[in-house]
Amino acid sequence: MPHSKPIHYADAGPEVRAVYDEIKATRGVDDINNFWKHIANHPPTLKHAWESVKEAMTPGKLDSLFKEMVFVAVSASNGCEYCLRCHTDAARKQGMTDEMLGELIAVVNVATQSNILANGYQIPLDDDLKD
Amino acid sequence: MPHSKPIHYADAGPEVRAVYDEIKATRGVDDINNFWKHIANHPPTLKHAWESVKEAMTPGKLDSLFKEMVFVAVSASNGCEYCLRCHTDAARKQGMTDEMLGELIAVVNVATQSNILANGYQIPLDDDLKD
Amino acid sequence: MPHSKPIHYADAGPEVRAVYDEIKATRGVDDINNFWKHIANHPPTLKHAWESVKEAMTPGKLDSLFKEMVFVAVSASNGCEYCLRCHTDAARKQGMTDEMLGELIAVVNVATQSNILANGYQIPLDDDLKD
Amino acid sequence: MPHSKPIHYADAGPEVRAVYDEIKATRGVDDINNFWKHIANHPPTLKHAWESVKEAMTPGKLDSLFKEMVFVAVSASNGCEYCLRCHTDAARKQGMTDEMLGELIAVVNVATQSNILANGYQIPLDDDLKD
Amino acid sequence: MPHSKPIHYADAGPEVRAVYDEIKATRGVDDINNFWKHIANHPPTLKHAWESVKEAMTPGKLDSLFKEMVFVAVSASNGCEYCLRCHTDAARKQGMTDEMLGELIAVVNVATQSNILANGYQIPLDDDLKD
Amino acid sequence: MPHSKPIHYADAGPEVRAVYDEIKATRGVDDINNFWKHIANHPPTLKHAWESVKEAMTPGKLDSLFKEMVFVAVSASNGCEYCLRCHTDAARKQGMTDEMLGELIAVVNVATQSNILANGYQIPLDDDLKD
């Protein structure tokens, strides 16, 4: 028994179909990823996830590629294979090269290392960093 | 008893002093953060941490502000107060505005949310994302 | 310098004020928690966070106390002091006793223990749990 | 070479057999999950894990389904596939519907989101939440 | 209002007192840490935590200092300040020097780094590591 | 499309080949693990990862088997299958028995449990553990 079943367009109610249609239109694609089809098992989750992703990933003061790469960095840090692969793919389509990915993971690496060392030595805040 | 003591320049051996000097010269500062003074309790850790941070944070295909902001994103994700505050400060000095920080955390937020949903529904990889 | 400043009602724009007003009305309170005042530094984050929290925490098939206690469980698991204290307080106001909290944390504890053991021994899925 | 081998009843010593027998009797099952067979590589771990799980999951002030669903929530949060699938299955057998699972994951989602935002903005405790 | 109150000996029931007495006798101390006093809010949690800690930390194939240092390593990795300080103190009392702590954290550091890189590059298992 | 491609010796530049050669010589092996071949996509990451691993894992005040087992403990705690399997294998080759692994995971287990309980009850530092 699969852990959760995808909700296909043909079987979806109007609330879910409306989100699927909007995802396809926004992204210019014919079909949507498994991600959306599975979280559609709970329609309010689908709706809020899509709205918050759309809002957060729309170019603003930060551009679209930058945002995709931050998404990759967080997913690598959390070890989420699905999101890592999905957003690495998206970032590559927007121009991320192997070298850029290499530099990105190198920053994730040193940030994580610094987090561990700050914890391990219980390093106190510098005075100018305190509230 | 403090968990670990900072190693001050006056008390440091030549290996540690050489790193302190290089940090000050590279960054153009008179003193260094508590971070370096505490990890200097294990000189090889100080040396490797500094070398990998210097290498990873040097502008390459990605610019310096981008890299600082990824550092902030990972530290927020890991909940490391010391690194978050230290690198938010550094990113602000390189031009990160409140709006840019707001957009950055919004991306960290939706990435984390996606990681949780991908786990919670055990979403299978789309065919085009498989190895 | 504080890491982020709270946005007070008097200084907030109309988008933020509308959310503050809705939180106060929904919860029947005169003032709102620091949480909302700080994430208001990025108004779209405030709006989406409030909408998804409101949606997720509204009683449905699961009642309100159950949901608060799950919120407590996840925050304890993630080690987030702010959310843990805030939602433990909310759960207590809805009737959670010390004994119920004790049982809740005991479940978080054995779940975490099982997660660690499943990882540590790399335990394969039982046949009836496979997709 | 498998990472760890299951300990089958026929090959188990009396200390392990006693736990296996008790699990089967308590749960009314003919066989036990891989989980127990693998952690039996270290008999004291098997014994303590079983005793603490039995104690924590026995209905008390919180009922059995509630406890299973908290177990699911924590395992989803930690990304442990084995425990997530195993306890989602157990919760379904006790009456958890797809809608209830959807609401549960939605709470895990907003709790995690709140944890990230509380970290990212370094939100200070409200006065009434302080010790 | 403190998040949880310590349970002092004078106010404890016989089940809790019995565990307190055993901790004091086992460790040869006059008083016990806050840890035990707080988890005593749920007596079965106190009992199981103490029994599993006692069992796991008793010298066996691994000696006591080794075990304390692994406890420190995991607590540093999880960023748990209370446990990190408590068990670093215990390890020092058993002979851990600053140099040994430095080497320990260095291993935690490279292990974490390797975990992040293995995730970030989605490195496939070598053939001889597969089940 | 695989997420990242291994860099084979024949296709590697001199900087990468030099590291590969040093790994083979240091470890006395004919070929290197996938880990190194994948992180070689970013040569500076390969170089720093190797140097910091070599430094951290060299016997010092702590011996080699101790260090391998701490590596296993951290990887189990972080749920990194690749590193867990790779370093469990390495530890076994240095003499770690099933019983030693069982005791190791038991310590990881109680440490994690203590971390969760310290968070869940927000246990304050004992006076003698404060800075």
Write a structural description.
Six copies of one chain form a homohexamer. Chain A has two domains: 1-58, AhpD-like (Up-down Bundle); 59-131, AhpD-like, CATH 1.20.1290. In chain A, 66% of the residues lie in helices and 0% in strands. Chain A contains six helices and no strands. In chain A, helix 1 (14-27) runs parallel beside helix 3 (43-57). The first copy, chain A, starts with 13 loop residues before the first helix and ends in an 11-residue tail after the last helix. At the A-B interface, helix 2, helix 3, helix 4, helix 5 and helix 6 of A face helix 2, helix 3, helix 4, helix 5 and helix 6 of B.
- Element string of chain A (H = helix, E = strand): HHHHHH
Oligomer: homohexamer
CATH H-level homologous superfamily name of the largest domain in chain A: AhpD-like
Shape summary of chain A: elongated
Taking the sheet with the most strands of chain A, its summary is: none
Unreliable stretches of chain A, pLDDT < 50, 5 or more residues? Answer: none
Query: Helicity of chain A, in percent?
Result: 55-70%
- Give the N-terminus to C-terminus distance of chain A in angstroms: 52 Å
The secondary-structure class of chain A comes to mainly alpha
Biggest interface, chains and residues, is:
A-B, 63 and 63 residues
For the secondary structure, the number of strands of chain A is 0
Number of helices of chain A: 6
What's the alpha carbon Rg of chain A, rounded to whole Å?
A: 19 Å
Mean pLDDT of chain A comes to: 96
Count of distinct structural domains of chain A: 2
Q: Under the CATH scheme, which class of the largest domain in chain A?
A: Mainly Alpha
CATH-derived topology of the largest domain in chain A: AhpD-like
